[in-house]
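YM 10:42: Large ribosomal subunit protein uL11 sequence, as discussed on the call
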Amino acid sequence: MAETVEVLVPGGRATAGPPIGPALGPLGINVKAVVDDINKKTAEFNGMQVPVKIEVDDKKNVTISVGIPPTTALVMKEVGIEKGSAEPNSIIVGDLPIEAAVRIARMKLDDMLSYELKTAVKEVIGTCVSVGVTVDGKKPKEILAAISAGQYDSVLEA
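YM 10:58: structure's back
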């Protein structure tokens, strides 16, 4: 019977400790080799939490699938902050260019509830609200209204 383990690991810095080691150890596979493989595959997401799915079949063959980090992590990396605002409505911790929001939306489009880029960008900007990040120097809610009004259609089509 195949086993599947889903974990969130720091990109490029997974260890054989929890949560990976205890989950894979009883399966009788080489945990260090799996961790090394995960680190190679997640190196580009260094410093971000990355979802990883590890599948072990009956013959102890391991398949590793790396997901895309959460939208919050991508926004924070793009802005260059370690942590979101404790009071996002009053304390602003950074500014995200609209082009970066579009780039993140394109990256995450398959994992989002949105079917169109425009609504995916709105989801990313909605994340900015909860992190305490402005978009193009404006409050995210203002940008959302502007997107709905079609003011950013040229950026969304580029």
